[in-house]
Amino acid sequence: MSDPIAMLLPHRPPMRWIGALVECTETAASAVAEFGPDHFAVVDGLVSASALVECMAQTVAAAAGQRARCRGESGSPAGRMLAAVTNFRIVSRPPAGARLRIEVQERRRLGPMLQVTGVVSQEGLAIATGELTVYA
Description:
Elements: E1 18-24, E2 28-34, E3 42-43, E4 46-47, H1 49-70, E5 81-90, E6 99-110, E7 113-122, E8 125-135
Antiparallel strand pairs: 1-2, 2-6, 3-4, 5-8, 6-7, 7-8
């Protein structure tokens, strides 16, 4: 059987960083991610801040893919890209091997632009928060 997340995202290893989409509604989604100690996004044993931003963006993309599949379209929609990162705050960088939960919530859409807020958590504690604008 094929990898379910691979059907939802255009990303391929080594750039596919979320492991699974665990919840998806019309306006919200959550995913999980885990970075091994040898992953290139791990520096000095800690996951890089930019990887936390990318995990949020990939969660938005996976949710779009899931919604497309539910409408009978193919998943992994192409042509989407991260346009802006605002108000992003890193409380702490997680260690390699930590299981991360990524939650995103749509806030507004203006034409092809979608603004979402997101939270990355480790063991139930928010370690990063911010807003993304995605060309969708």
